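Following up on my earlier thread - several people asked me to post the actual chain instead of describing it. Fair enough. Here it is, all 337 residues.
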Amino acid sequence: MSVNSGSVDETSADLPVVHAFVLGGTISMTKGPTGVAPGLSGKEVFANIAGMETTAKVVLHDFRKLPGASLRLDDIYELALLITETLDGDAAGVVVVQGTDTIEEVAFCLDLLIQTSKPIVVTGAMRSPAAPGPDGDANLSGAVVTAASAIDFGGVVVVLGDEIHAARLVSKSHSTKPSAFASPASGPMGTIIEGAVIAPLALRNRGPHVAARPVRESASVPVVVIGLDDDGLGLTAGNLADGLVIETMGVGHIPSWLVEPISEIAKRIPVVMCSRTRSGPTLTATYAFPGSEQDLLRAGVIAAGSLTSMKARLLLLLLLRSGADHARIIRTFSEMQ
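Reply from S.P.:
Thanks for posting it. Predicted structure:
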């Protein structure tokens, strides 16, 4: 692998070009007196990847140097435009390197904001370079191999631990394990074995597209979790919000006494329901008791299907900032089913 900052090495002219945007995160962290923090440049992050001289020439972009939790949506808008511009040029694919705290969110946003058949791969590390058994180099290697593969995965993918996951389906399922990323509904789309991509699965339909240039500077979409004997106090978050996501019980159920206040909120702003199980869909036509999914749909609540609340919130945020009206919001969530 040939690594350069902002330019291509002509000595590896026959290799596919992969552009890597480094945002920071655990993979770039160095040890200080009290713990680790982002400190490495993109060149330093990629310095120790061995055995890839015949895979790709990597062009590095030091985009941010932040922990994943401190990225803003405006950072992702800017990144999406840069990636689009890059893919219109010489790039065979793109790798985004960032903190794992928000990998599933950033990958999902990029999936919505960018239309391309070229691979966009998001990766990071669960262990910093200063920790025993760091996983960053192996994840970078797998990400570059995937980005250079020219495979159309049907959307943005996340690569860690030699597994390839669809951005729409992947979740961070553990706070510390190197095997933290999983796709509960489907399993991984593919794997990386002996430096090659084995991808037996691809997404059947490319997801909806949302404009990468927002027309609104900001929007507020809180997430409210509904629980046993819920007094509805959390729903007051919708009073000052532009939209609301509610995590319902099971397949879309809430206490019967909360239907009316949620119905009132849905008259003012879009309200989206997800399952608090974070795996499996909300239903539309199975249960008919007060507080059931049918009750909520009649009250004007939008079903998120299999989207987690995290991803439903982001989709609603991006739609609101794009200037989408209520009909467009309903249609887009329906397209995600």
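The helical segments are 42-45, 73-87, 103-113, 136-147, 259-266, 293-298, 309-321, 326-335. That should answer part of your original question.
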